[in-house]
């Protein structure tokens, strides 16, 4: 996917590569919201990959309404990233295995358990998804030069999207 850069895409990628836990928001086909904390990995085009299971609310919602939003926060620097876009299922078993192995490594670094929460659910088979961003925004609230909302966010937008 080609992304049209309005600000520093590399800065967004670096932040999201270091902070691999976020809150994914989905909605039912009737528009009822649902949020869940996920482990994820990101590629240089800012596509987000995550694993879920077939009987989870995330899976059901994404099957009916393939849109998602992810929020990632780093408390020490009060930095947040917001990603919204289309969510597609990744059908490649080798890609699912690769994403799962990377999520296991992240879990081991960030938790007292080496098993991610999704693995503890008896909710069907594993499925891999990719959030393909339409808009990605990064805000650094500790920067003293940011006084206006318009100045706060660095934004990357896919060319066929609107701000």
Describe it:
The chain is α+β, with helices and mostly antiparallel strands and 163 residues long. It has one domain (4-157): Roll (Pnp Oxidase, Chain A), CATH 2.30.110. The chain is built from four helices and nine strands.
What's the quick description here?
The chain has four helices and nine strands; from the N terminus they run βαββββαββαβαβ.
CATH class identity: Mainly Beta
Overall morphology: globular
String of helices and strands? EHEEEEHEEHEHE
Q: Work out the helix count.
A: 4
Distance between the ends? 18 Å
Taking pLDDT < 50 over at least 5 consecutive residues as the criterion, the unreliable ranges are: none
The Cα radius of gyration reads: 16 Å
The CATH topology is given as Pnp Oxidase, Chain A
User: Mean pLDDT, rounded to whole units?
Assistant: 85
Query: What summary fits the major beta sheet?
Result: 9 strands, antiparallel
Strand content: 35-45%
Number of domains: 1
CATH architecture: Roll
| Count of extended strands | 9
CATH superfamily: Electron Transport, Fmn-binding Protein, Chain A
Q: How would you classify the helix and strand content by structural class?
A: alpha+beta
Percent helix, as a range, is 10-25%
